[in-house]
Structures are given as structure tokens and as C-alpha cells.
């Protein structure tokens, strides 16, 4: 692998040619052992394990461990990891005060990114190499991100925060911090906790997507892990990336309220090249088949709605929109299928998570992948600072006149 990378550099030196590849459609930026995708067949594996299998049989923290450490944990390792997650779930009191200074309507992704980079001011930077201290940093990130997300929700609704509780599992603890309050008798529903656990697993990594590439790029300058992940959160926020889950629900809401549930106008708009509108939650750079995560997410959505006895008209609209798109020539020709964001928002909504927090849920799930990618990049002897080239098309010096001061 290394040899090949060196050859490419040699080729550039000898020929002076560079690759012009907008959007890096066909550029391999690294060699990786973390995640495998076969976009033609709709296959996704973390460290060799199929995504559906992992979602069915594992806890999110085991998958996090798998991504970061390269193997599923033994019972002892699971216990130790759980203990560390519990021990590092609180956020520093001084940092908690930061919440008071954000406007009430601040987007939770902005708050999350700012809070994660703030963690680097409270905790020392990572040393080189991967040791016990690093495990603590991993647990800090995994655990505190979830706490920050729940605290920002409480701030948003003007309720007192609920601290993390020892003894609760990862997703249960999150649900408790979100929905417990002094005036409600809240008990975590194990079926909801399990559904959330699965959704987090589906989001845990996806190789060199926009946010993972940002995490690697920032980390390649030897910026610390918190700074790199904070940048990744900003990339994820974009509506063409993780932000799509929020926009899917807004699109479905629009169809319900403005189009009386009729999906045809939205479908037509998505096909109109003079209109910048795109069908949210549809299409993918790599998948040219059904996104395997969308299949599981659709199943989870039905299970949760059935369990809660909840009928959501937006689910019927989503199913109808999907069906209409799958039968439409435009979508068929371009291999456009639902992606992971199409059905996840409906489940979050049923659980009671507000729409502007959907992308935060994605970020909580994606933390292990970002850490694994960052760590792999730092340990790779062939990795160098990320520094793409460009094709300059601006004015030449012949086209400008001397500056008269
Ligand atoms: N609606 C309508 N047309 C679409 C859509 C869509 N959602 N997605 C792609 N197309 C069309 C493009 O216009 C293009 O048509 P053309 O060949 O006539 O020019 C063709 O399909 C190929 O699409 P590209 O733009 O080349 O796809 P690209 O790989 O650059 O973009 C992306 C992928 C950003 C995901 C795109 O499909 C999209 O915008 N989807 C909607 C947003 C979304 O759901 N994002 C979440 C992705 S998953 C994730 O990040 C977690």
C-alpha cells in the first residue's frame, strides 16, 4: 500500500500532472482497515462485521469499542469500557455555565461543535501513541458528547438539566437525561432504548464521507482530537450530509401541510434541473443500490411506531414518496434510493426528540468512527498533512497592470 502511494508521488514529480477531481469522486485519500462499503451491492461492514448483524446483536458501546480497538470487547473489556464511560460522563461545572450564554434558539449542532472544542481547554491534549490515557479520552468524548446533547435540549426547553446516572446503560442514560424531569415519572422504555442503540450503530462509521475526511484533514495538521471532531461536527451539520435527516422531516411536513399529502409536486421539483431543490434523504455518492442502513432504519421506525401505538401520517407520506421515486425513470436511471437519513427522523420524532436535534443524534452515533479514522490516520506511517492542489484559472500577470499607489 505504502509503495503504491510513493509511486503516485513519484509520477507527479516526473510528469508534473495533478489529478483534477472535484468532490473527490474518484480519489482514494487513504488506506483504511475500519469500514468496508460495496456501493453497487449495498454492503456495509465495520472491521469485517456486517452492519445488520451488529445492529441486531450488539450494544452501541461494543461497536464503538470495535471501531476504535479493532475487535469486539471481551466481557471484561466491556465492563471496563462501561465503567470508564460512566466515570467520564459528567461535564465540568465551569463548562456547564457555557450553556447560559447561548441564545435560546441556537442550533444544537453549533452548540455541540463549540462545546466539543471547549473540551480541549479542560483536558490535556492527547499524547502520541495509544495508551490507557487515550482510552479515557475516547470515553470522555463518547460519554460527554451525549451529556452535552441532552443538556442543550434541556436549555432549549427551559428545564433544569438532569445529570448522568451511574448504573444506566449508554442509551438509557441519554434518554433519562433528555426526558426525566422533576415533574414527570419517567422510566426508560427498554424497547426505545434498544431502537436508539441500533440507530447509533447504523451511524457509527461510513469511511471517507465528508465529515470523516474533515476529521482526518484537520488531524493531519496535528490538531488535537477534540478540535478535529469539532470540525467534523460542523461538516456533518450540512444538509447534503447529516443535516439531511432534519430536512427530510421538514420536507414531509411540507407535503402534509402544503400539498395535502400529495407527493407528486415534490417529486417533480426534485427532477427539475432549474430548481436547486433535491429530494432529501435520497441519493448517495457511493451507494448505487439501496442503502443497507436505510433498510434497517425503516424496520426500526415501524417497530417503534407499533410499540408506541403511534400513527404518524409522515410515515405514510415517506413510504408513498419512496415508492413513487423507485418507480420513476429519473430516479431509476440515476440509481437514487433512500439513504440512512430518510427514515431515521421519523423514529427520533416518535421518541420525542425535536427535529433540530436529529443531526446531533447522528453525531453521537458517529463519534466512534471519527475517533477510529483520526487514530488510524495518526498511526499510518504514510500519512502526511492533507494538502490538495488546484488548477489555477485566475488572471495571469500579463492581464493585470502595475499597482499605482
Ligand atoms: N434528488 C434529486 N436528484 C438527485 C438527488 C436527489 N436527492 N441526488 C442526486 N440527484 C441527481 C443529481 O442531480 C445528478 O443528476 P444529473 O446526472 O442529471 O446531473 C445525479 O443524481 C447524480 O448525483 P450527484 O450530484 O452526482 O451525486 P453526488 O454524489 O454528488 O451527491 C448527495 C450525493 C449529496 C448525497 C446527493 O444525492 C444529495 O444531495 N442528496 C440529498 C441530500 C441527502 O440526502 N444527503 C444525505 C446523504 S447520506 C449522508 O451524508 C449521511
TrEMBL record:
Please give one Gene Ontology molecular function term for this protein. citrate synthase activity
What Gene Ontology cellular-component terms does the record carry?
A: cytoplasm
Give the positions the UniProt entry annotates as the active site: 284, 341
Origin superkingdom? Bacteria
Q: Name one GO biological process term.
A: tricarboxylic acid cycle
Residue stretches spanning the membrane: none
- Gene3D superfamilies in the record: 2.20.28.60, Citrate Synthase, domain 1, Cytochrome P450-Terp, domain 2
Q: Which keywords annotate this record?
A: Acyltransferase, Transferase, Tricarboxylic acid cycle
The answer to whether keyword Acyltransferase applies is yes
Pfam families recorded: Citrate_synt
According to UniProt, this protein's pathway is: Carbohydrate metabolism; tricarboxylic acid cycle; isocitrate from oxaloacetate: step 1/2
| UniProt keyword Transmembrane, yes or no | no
**Reaction(s) catalysed by this chain's protein:** oxaloacetate + acetyl-CoA + H2O = citrate + CoA + H(+)
Region of interest (Disordered), residue spans: 386-405
The family classification in the record reads: Belongs to the citrate synthase family.
Which PANTHER family does the entry mention?
CITRATE SYNTHASE
Q: What is this protein called?
A: Citrate synthase
Its gene is gltA2
Amino acid at each position: 500500500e505504502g509503495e503504491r502511494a510513493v509511486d503516485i508521488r513519484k509520477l507527479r514529480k516526473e510528469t508534473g500532472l495533478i489529478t483534477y477531481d472535484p468532490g473527490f469522486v474518484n480519489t482514494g485519500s487513504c488506506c483504511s482497515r475500519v469500514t468496508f462499503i460495496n456501493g453497487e451491492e449495498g454492503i456495509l461492514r465495520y472491521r469485517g462485521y456486517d452492519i445488520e448483524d451488529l445492529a441486531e446483536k450488539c450494544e452501541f458501546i461494543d461497536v464503538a469499542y470495535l471501531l476504535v480497538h479493532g475487535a469486539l470487547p471481551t466481557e471484561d473489556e466491556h465492563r471496563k469500557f462501561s465503567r470508564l464511560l460512566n466515570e467520564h460522563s459528567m461535564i465540568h461545572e465551569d463548562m456547564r455555565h457555557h450553556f447560559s450564554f447561548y441564545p435560546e434558539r441556537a442550533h444544537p449542532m453549533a452548540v455541540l461543535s463549540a462545546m466539543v472544542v471547549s473540551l480541549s481547554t479542560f483536558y490535556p491534549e492527547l499524547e502520541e501513541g495509544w495508551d490507557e490515557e487515550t482510552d479515557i479520552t475516547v470515553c470522555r468524548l463518547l460519554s460527554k458528547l451525549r451529556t452535552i446533547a441532552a443538556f442543550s435540549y434541556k436549555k432549549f426547553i427551559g428545564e433544569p438539566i438532569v445529570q448522568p446516572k451511574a448504573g444506566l446503560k449508554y442509551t438509557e442514560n441519554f434518554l433519562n437525561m433528555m426526558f426525566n424531569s422533576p415533574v414527570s415519572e419517567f422510566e426508560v422504555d427498554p424497547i426505545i432504548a434498544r431502537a436508539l442503540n441500533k440507530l447509533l450503530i447504523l451511524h457509527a462509521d461510513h469511511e471517507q464521507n465528508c465529515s470523516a475526511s474533515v476529521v482526518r484533514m484537520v488531524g493531519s495538521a496535528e490538531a488535537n482530537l477534540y478540535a478535529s471532531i469539532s470540525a467534523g461536527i460542523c461538516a456533518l451539520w450540512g444538509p447534503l450530509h447529516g443535516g439531511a435527516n432534519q430536512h427530510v422531516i421538514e420536507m414531509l411536513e411540507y407535503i402534509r401541510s402544503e400539498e395535502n399529502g400529495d407527493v407528486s409536486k415534490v417529486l417533480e421539483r426534485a427532477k427539475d434541473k432549474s430548481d436547486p431543490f433535491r429530494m432529501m434523504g435520497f441519493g448517495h455518492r457511493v451507494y448505487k443500490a439501496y442503502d443497507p442502513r436505510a433498510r434497517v432504519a425503516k424496520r426500526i421506525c415501524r417497530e417503534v411506531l407499533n410499540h408506541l401505538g403511534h400513527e404518524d401520517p409522515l410515515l405514510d407520506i415517506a413510504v408513498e414518496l419512496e415508492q413513487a421515486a423507485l418507480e420513476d425513470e429519473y430516479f431509476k436511471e440515476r440509481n437514487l434510493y433512500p439513504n440512512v437519513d430518510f427514515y431515521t427522523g421519523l423514529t427520533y420524532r416518535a421518541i420525542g426528540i425535536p427535529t433540530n436535534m436529529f443531526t446531533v443524534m447522528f453525531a453521537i452515533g458517529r463519534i466512534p468512527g471519527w475517533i477510529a479514522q483520526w487514530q488510524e490516520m495518526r498511526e499510518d506511517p504514510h500519512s502526511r498533512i492533507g494538502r490538495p492542489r488546484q488548477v489555477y484559472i485566475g488572471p495571469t500577470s500579463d492581464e493585470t497592470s502595475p499597482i499605482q499607489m
